[in-house]
Amino acid sequence: MACDFVKVNRDKVSTGIAIIGIIFILSLTYPNTQAQTNISFTPADKFGTPENNGSIGFAVNGTCSNVTFENNTWTFTNLCLTGSQPLENFEISTQNSNVTIFSYLTFNNTAFQGIQLGYAVEGKGKQVLNLGLGSEEEDWEWSVAFNGVFIGEGDGWNILRDGTLVVTGATGNVSIFDFESFGNSAPSSNLPFYQQHSVAIIITVAVAATVVVAVVIKVNSRKHSGESS
To answer: Quick check: pTM over 0.90?
Structure first.
């Protein structure tokens, strides 16, 4: 009887030690998982592409859950810039050019949805971007403007089948738009002017905003440079 009692106690002790061990191990691993935070960056941070003589930067503060560099391409996951909507997957590579990204905006309407990416580029090189919208064959309509002037596809930019956008020879401000229509029917003439031409209005305002932001950033940069001198 005593032996059985001792055996039971030993079993309880062993079980208790095992439970404590499991809790200890979890306490070492679980908090580390919870402690993972977003990667933060500021306009002072640059993501270089040394082999291609290029770099990527941002005009505002931002965060992302992950950032990787492979095959001369930077990939940002869950990118979120101050004043912008989140961008789930963003890939960018630059050649002979330095890019400063201003903003990423999304538009939603009863007739369409769309996005706009604005950036400035120094150096007459090439930028290769993928916004994670899917293949080119889907019902998205791309538009690209250089310094407020829209450029036709094949004349400074083109879209690949996987949805990758290639911009070549741009200098100054670049605005990229992509809209998906929910229907092929033309807007009703009974609708107000702003609803009939909502896409054109959004594009015009976004292009103007990109130019204004670029000018403000450029003036501030010169001001800070002067103060440093």
So the answer is: no
Measured CA to CA, the distance from residue 178 to residue 206 in angstroms comes to: 12
Strand order in the sheet with 172-181: 46-49, 54-58, 98-108, 112-122, 172-181, 140-146, 149-151
Whether 29 and 119 map to the same domain: the answer is no
CA 35, 38, 44, 49 torsion-angle sign: positive
- At 22-73, the pLDDT tens digits run 444 444 444 444 445 789 999 999 999 999 999 999 999 999 999 999 999 9
Residues 13 and 97 in one domain: no
| Torsion sign (Cα): 29, 33, 34, 40 | positive
Domain extent, residue 178, equals 39-228
Residues 170 and 67 in one domain: yes
